[in-house]
Amino acid sequence: MVIWEVDCYRRPLRNADGQPLWELLVCDRAFEFTYGATAPQAAVNAAWLQQELATALQKSGQSPAEIRVFRPQCLSLLQVAAEGWSLTVRPSRNTPTLKRWLVQRSQWYPAQPEYSGEPYEPIALEQPAPVPMSENLWGEQWRFGSLSAQDLQESLVYEPMPFQSVPEEFLPLKLGLPSTAAIPGVIIDAGRRSLPLAQWLHEQQPAALNYIPGAPDGVILEAGLVDRWVLTTFEDSQVAAAGQQFRDRQQQAQGLHFLLVRPDDSGMTFTGLWLLRL
Description:
This protein is α/β, with parallel strands linked by helices and about 280 residues long.
């Protein structure tokens, strides 16, 4: 499946008239196809983007199954432009090739005659403060846990459940992790609230879980493009130690982790599974 990763945003560049320049960047996941174009900020609109996408399609020779966009500021504009070519635009933080390219280009801009010298963070996004989850959604109990890469990939992902998000590129063995690697996760036994909780999570599009030490400690759910939710807080020292182990295992597993929702701890039924990566 051909996936394009696309960004269109202001860069630290200005034209001869002093107008800020915006840049469109398009790449596929393997970085085998790339396309770029710039225009003064005043000229960047859906019509301009639609024409540039047409040029990119012509040069590529194939239409992508979907276009992934990680920057909220250009999402709606790209969605409108893509409609003219029946292209699907999906908001997603999972745009690793594009983000690497943006970082590389940020080191190239200072050598350009149009360079403005203004501060520039190529992939930084403004994030709101985390918002507490509704108590009506919270389950009966939760814990940090882990599964071996083999058990996760060859067993759990095949269990029947109403909600599941397991990107193929996140599968642990695809990442080159050994079958015995411990993949950390957060497991929620939600009882009767299991289905409403999984439905809500599905709507939020989970992206990552972060253990945050503090007073109190907590687990933050990163979702959508920039949304943040307080999944839980706690002051128990044993849970904090498990949280530190969760974070250590994340680093050892190339950022891979999971969120599992089930009615109870019987291991017989599951409601939702999200395979996530920092």
